[in-house]
Write a structure and sequence with these properties.
CATH architecture: Alpha-Beta Barrel
Order of helices and strands: HHHEEHEHEHHEHHEHEHEHHEHHEEE
Number of domains: 1
Shape: globular
CATH superfamily: Aldolase class I
CATH topology: TIM Barrel
Largest sheet: 4 strands, parallel
Mean pLDDT: 87
Radius of gyration: 20 Å
Strand content: 15-25%
């Protein structure tokens, strides 16, 4: 591929073409507003296609937020509720099973389970959610509980991370989402979520999960009070853990939505910032196989464009997403498989349905709700020295 990039990026381009690792200084430079976003996209696309070719992935999934009642009061959160608020809820066993039945009837391969930290519910309530779903719908992969929630479970039970994860695995846990990472640096974290699990806890919980063979995702919430240094510092910390464990499957850069939060005076990130962050994420995280353009947060058009700026995954159908819609997301509550595949093909990419751990999903043409897991989709991704 022959193209030119801004002279400021000459050294970075040489590193990318040679498969060399970028530094903190490289990352901060790429956030310079004078560095053209399109040039970063071209560089990120080299890495994206080196790892994932022309594929773009999606899955058929649903969200389950079993409660929004939360002991914490994070400044950026529009989802949480107080116990006595009219907005507050906690789902019953019957409601949880009904949500699982809906997922099963609609061919979902994954349930994404996160929520509030309900201070009147014991650890066993959270375990029971997994048991109910696994007993009734054994084929569906249960991706549940962020590191922040797991840290809360440790507090409730006085048990170690490993003991908590063992109990959840026994109940049906398949993998971990990447939420709760926000921004690791204490200059920012202490302002936006000072009471919940700090960066050391978040990283250690994922380290233990990876050591146990539990795959996880990782995230970064950007576009609030953080600076470029904080974002790159965050990415480098994730990259360091991935060097150690290899347990991260996907990185999701999450654009901050300020509406209905304690930071509602802040403007949400522009599409150009979204694409810049997507490209930089792909370039910095040389050892994470997949980068997700989460259409719920980015908007459909930006998510499509991101498939040429380093992203190779659009997430999925995403039934019943509440957290970002409560914060002002105006995207649809659900996309059909047909629409997802159309969006991917419009970008010139080849759509591939995957399960949570990136294996092909094979569907019965006459019964969409009937499916089987196919071969693993391999990504030729290794850390560079």
């Amino acid at each position: 591929m022959i193209f030119t990039v801004d002279p400021k990026l000459k050294a970075i381009r040489e590193k990318i073409e040679a498969g060399q690792r970028l530094t903190l200084e490289d990352g901060i430079l790429m956030y310079d507003p004078e560095v053209p976003v399109n040039d970063l996209g071209q560089l990120a696309n080299i890495v994206r296609e080196r790892i994932n070719g022309n594929y773009a992935y999606y899955n058929i999934n649903t969200h389950l937020n079993a409660t929004n009642i939360c002991v914490y009061r994070c400044t950026f959160c529009a989802f949480r509720s107080d116990l006595r608020s009219d907005k507050g809820y906690a789902m019953s066993d019957e409601q949880i099973i009904a949500r699982g039945q809906e997922a099963s009837d609609n061919g979902c391969t994954e349930m994404h389970i996160v929520g509030g930290l309900h201070h009147q519910r014991k650890f066993e309530w959270y375990v029971n959610i997994l048991k109910l779903l696994k007993d009734h719908f054994p084929k569906i992969h249960l991706k549940g509980w962020t590191a922040v929630e797991l840290n809360w479970f440790e507090f409730l039970t006085k048990k170690s991370t490993r003991e908590v994860l063992e109990a959840l695995q026994e109940a049906g846990l398949g993998s971990l989402p990447g939420g709760g990472a926000e921004i690791f640096h204490p200059e920012v974290r202490d302002q936006i979520c000072e009471h919940k699990a700090d960066s050391r806890n978040w990283i250690e919980i994922h380290r233990v999960a990876h050591q146990m063979g539990i795959k996880s995702n990782c995230t970064m919430l950007y576009g609030h009070i953080e600076k470029p240094f904080h974002r790159i510092d965050h990415l480098i910390r994730l990259r360091g853990l991935q060097d150690e464990t290899g347990g991260f499957q996907t990185f999701i850069p999450l654009a901050f939505h300020p509406e209905n939060t304690g930071l509602s005076h802040i403007k949400k990130p522009t599409a150009m910032m979204d694409l810049r962050t997507m490209a930089i994420s792909r370039l910095m995280l040389d050892n994470v196989p997949h980068i997700k353009a989460y259409w719920i947060m980015l908007g459909i058009g930006t998510a499509q464009t991101a498939l040429s700026y380093g992203a190779d995954d659009l997430d999925g159908t995403v039934r019943h997403e509440l957290i970002y819609h409560d914060a002002g997301a105006t995207t649809p509550q659900l996309l059909s498989v047909q629409r997802l595949e159309e969006l991917i093909r419009e970008t010139g990419r080849e759509p591939i349905e995957r399960d949570t751990i990136y294996r092909r999903v094979n569907r019965d043409a006459n019964d969409f709700s009937s499916w089987e897991i196919g071969e693993e989709i391999t990504a030729d991704c290794a850390a560079v020295s």
